[in-house]
């Protein structure tokens, strides 16, 4: 971690830089109008509840489709979630092997991406904290105690999620304190401290969510667009986010081992029971930053090949780098088009996917995304959503993500049968044989024999010695990857760090944007790259 002085102070740019993008942002933290804006109950509720939308627009809702991309697109390319033949969205730079450092110099190509999420998440945290400050110290009250409690619960939740996201993405961020003077500019703290603060804030949300009475829960459906959550549902969501932050803040395998997995298990076991879906719309804007997911991206052959049972993946792994060419993935996994010829798979790739189908065999010209990335396949699970001009529900935190956090906690605490039962919920509906009753310990190959899924590489790239059947650990990771592609905020990248799956040199987090460092009169810095500061050390799990 890049160490930053806790005594830093100065003008923080995050709020000012996002003010032009969101009408809820406050441009000047010392502006006396700030207290006037938050002086009435109606304005305070609108402002504070709106912080969640600001947070959403700084995470999976960030839409920077130009060459600079967004943190989400850069992280997806870094973790094999997507490859592309285009420079847009940062794909070519961040999918490249060997990995290079993140350039955080003034005016760098990706400065918009690095800044956008930091600024919007920081502004969302500030807005939620301001609302809590006025509710707690400012004497502003809503019409009923239940409404006050509901808004406090939601504000603590938003503050916790915003700080949680900052701790997951950046090496440092500012911890906003609702009880501090509104003019106070907090110093930067390391990601572990930020995550600890986020978990404390989420605990405060749980404490306030027990409110009942007139005008309390359910949440207004506009606060998390399309979700009129009951108190019980809200508590489940908070606990899922707690499990997510606690586990996914780990940067390395060693940090992953040190996570309090009993606490993760306790929260995930009481987490969401269905996908959290945002209703996307143009006004007021609730969007999803797709960044060419449907039109210019493809599924890397390196990951898709783990489903292959034909021997094509084996041959691809053994081939020299210059001879690695796309191959047909023949698999019992129904998320891929079925068939033993490309013509058959194209026929079985309808314009709009049906049933369990998530991937299509491309019917137009193939795109060259380099020897590791080029494949016949692209992800189109939510094509119907993409083609609907009015938008509609889109998952931003999946039930599977919560279940796989729970399954991982079971594996790490020695309860293999419980983990197998959760993994089978998704594995069996995709047409893969059950683990339950077959797998009793880590290290045992998944059932299927020569037709096992997933297969994992053996040796190191670019010329591996072959592949072998994965174990229950790899089966858990496979189900997570398949069910969370393009769902959630950089969802593959975060667990890939603690699993040790990232290729050597992949940045383990992003630096604080140079604009913020300039404003604080502190040197900016780069991160990652082979042999660089905070880059993944050594070959990853799969030999890269």
Describe the structure.
With 544 residues, the protein is mainly α. The chain has a domain of 296 residues: Serine Threonine Protein Phosphatase 5, Tetratricopeptide repeat. Helix content is 40%, strand content 7%. The protein has 22 helices and twelve strands. The strands form six sheets. It has a two-stranded antiparallel ribbon with strand order 1-6. It has a two-stranded antiparallel ribbon with strand order 2-12. A hairpin with a 7-residue loop joins strand 10 and strand 11. Helix 18 packs antiparallel against helix 20 and helix 19 runs parallel beside helix 20. The longest helix is centred in the N-terminal third of the chain and has 26 residues. It is globular and about 70 Å long.
Keywords for this entry:
544 residues, mainly alpha, Serine Threonine Protein Phosphatase 5, Tetratricopeptide repeat, two-stranded antiparallel ribbon, two-stranded antiparallel sheet, 22 helices, disordered N terminus
Beta-strand content: 5-15%
Our count of helices gives 22
First-residue to last-residue Cα separation? 23 Å
What would CATH call the class of the domain at 14-290 and 510-528?
A: Mainly Alpha
Could you say which structural class the secondary elements and strand pairing correspond to? Answer: mainly alpha
> Which architecture of the domain at 14-290 and 510-528 would the CATH scheme give at its second level?
Alpha Horseshoe
User: Which shape, going by the Cα principal axes?
Assistant: globular
| Main beta-sheet annotation | 2 strands, antiparallel
Unreliable parts: 1-32
The strand order across the widest sheet is: 1-6
């Amino acid at each position: 971690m890049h160490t930053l002085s806790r005594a830093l102070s100065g003008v923080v740019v995050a709020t000012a830089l996002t003010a032009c993008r969101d009408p809820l942002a406050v441009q000047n933290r010392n502006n006396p109008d700030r207290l006037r804006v938050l002086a009435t109950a109606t304005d305070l509720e609108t402002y504070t509840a709106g912080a969640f939308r600001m947070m959403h627009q700084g995470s999976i809702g960030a839409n920077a489709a130009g060459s600079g991309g967004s943190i989400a697109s850069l992280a997806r390319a870094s973790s094999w979630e997507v490859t592309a033949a285009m420079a847009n969205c940062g794909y070519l730079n961040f999918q490249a092997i060997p990995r290079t450092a993140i350039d955080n110099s003034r005016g760098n190509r990706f400065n918009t991406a690095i800044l956008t999420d930091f600024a919007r998440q920081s502004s969302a945290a500030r807005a939620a904290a301001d609302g809590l400050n006025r509710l707690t110290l400012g004497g502003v009250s809503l019409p009923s105690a239940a409404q006050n409690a509901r808004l406090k619960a939601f504000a603590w939740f938003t503050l916790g999620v915003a700080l949680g996201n900052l701790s997951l993405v950046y090496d440092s961020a500012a911890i906003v304190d609702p009880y501090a003077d509104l003019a106070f500019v907090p110093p930067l703290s390391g990601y572990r401290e930020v995550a600890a603060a986020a978990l404390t804030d989420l605990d405060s949300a749980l404490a306030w969510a027990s409110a009942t009475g007139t005008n309390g829960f359910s949440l207004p459906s506009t606060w998390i667009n399309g979700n009129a959550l009951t108190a019980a549902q809200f508590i489940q969501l908070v606990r899922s986010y707690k499990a997510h932050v606690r586990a996914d803040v780990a940067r390395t395998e060693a940090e992953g081992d040190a996570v309090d997995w009993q606490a993760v298990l306790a929260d995930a076991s009481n987490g969401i029971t269905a996908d959290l879906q945002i209703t996307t719309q143009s006004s007021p804007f609730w969007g999803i930053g797709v960044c060419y997911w449907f039109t210019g991206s493809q599924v890397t052959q390196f990951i898709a090949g783990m489903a292959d049972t034909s021997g094509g993946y084996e041959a691809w792994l053994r081939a020299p780098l210059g001879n690695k060419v796309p191959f047909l993935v023949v698999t019992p996994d129904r998320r891929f088009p079925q068939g033993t010829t490309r013509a058959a798979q194209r026929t079985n790739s309808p314009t709009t996917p049906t049933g369990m189908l998530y991937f299509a065999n491309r019917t137009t010209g193939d795109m060259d995304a380099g020897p590791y990335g080029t494949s016949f396949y692209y992800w189109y699970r939510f094509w119907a959503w993409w083609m609907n001009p009015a938008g509609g529900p889109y998952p931003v935190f999946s039930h599977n993500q919560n279940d796989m956090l729970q399954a991982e906690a079971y594996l790490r605490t020695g309860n293999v049968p419980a983990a197998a039962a959760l993994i089978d919920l998704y594995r069996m509906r995709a047409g893969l044989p059950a683990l339950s009753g077959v797998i009793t310990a880590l290290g045992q190959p998944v059932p299927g024999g020569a037709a096992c899924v997933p297969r994992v590489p053996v040796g190191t790239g670019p010329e591996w010695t072959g592949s072998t059947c994965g174990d229950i650990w790899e089966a858990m990771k496979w189900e997570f990857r398949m069910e969370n592609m393009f769902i959630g905020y950089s969802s593959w990248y975060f667990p890939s760090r603690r699993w040790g799956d990232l290729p050597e040199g992949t940045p383990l987090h992003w630096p604080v944007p140079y604009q913020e460092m300039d404003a604080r009169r502190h040197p900016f810095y780069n991160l990652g790259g082979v042999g660089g500061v905070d880059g993944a050390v050594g070959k990853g799990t799969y030999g890269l």
